[in-house]
Structure formats: C-alpha cells, structure tokens
Design brief:
Elements (H helix, E strand, L loop, with lengths): L1 H17 L9 E4 L6 H17 L3 E4 L7 H9 L7 E4 L4 H5 L2 H6 L3 E4 L7
Length: 119
Amino acid sequence: MKFFSIFIGLLVFVCAGCQPKEVRKPRVAALLKSSANPFFAMMWGGIKKQADESGIAVDRFWPSSESDFQFQSEFLKTRAFDYDAIILAPSDPDGIRAVLPRLRKAGKKIVVVEEGIPL
C-alpha cells in the first residue's frame, strides 16, 4: 500500500509538469503621432478592432501634439523594450531611423504604418 501511495504521489508530481503551460500573449504597443488628429484616432480604432478580434491586447501611446517627436523617441528608447511588438506612426521619420536598429537587435517586431518611409 505504501508503494502505491508513493507511486500516485510521484505520478501527480510528474503529470503536473506535463500540463500545458499557459501561453503568454504578445505585448503590443501602438505609438501613434497625436491624440489631437482625427486620422490617428480613426487609425487607433482600426488597430483596436483588429486586436480585439485577434484576442491581443494593445496599449496605445500618443502625445498631444503631432510634432512631439521627443515623446516617441523617449518611448522607443525606454518603454518599447517592455513590448514584443510596436505599431509605429513616426512623427519624425529621420529621427526614428537612429532608434530602430537597437529595437530590431533586441528582437522587437516593428510595424511602421506610414507610407513612403524607407526604413
């Protein structure tokens, strides 16, 4: 009987390790140009809708002014590393080029939602 109890205890311990681990959903940040421009509000609506349909949470970040590249630059240099992927509408395409290689090297996926920016 003692052997049976030890066997069951061992089986429970081993099987507990066999249980599928909870899959961590990707962390995604949307870094848009401005909260004041209706175009970016509409863009956020589309991003949010698609994310909800896909079951992915997306955190939105945007400065109050479209020309506030400092906000985006600071985010990309610091907080972006907390996310697996970044959706980006850059305020300053030339300035953004200097920041992206470090993110790419860290394995971050970057989606630029701006036409005509060769990055």
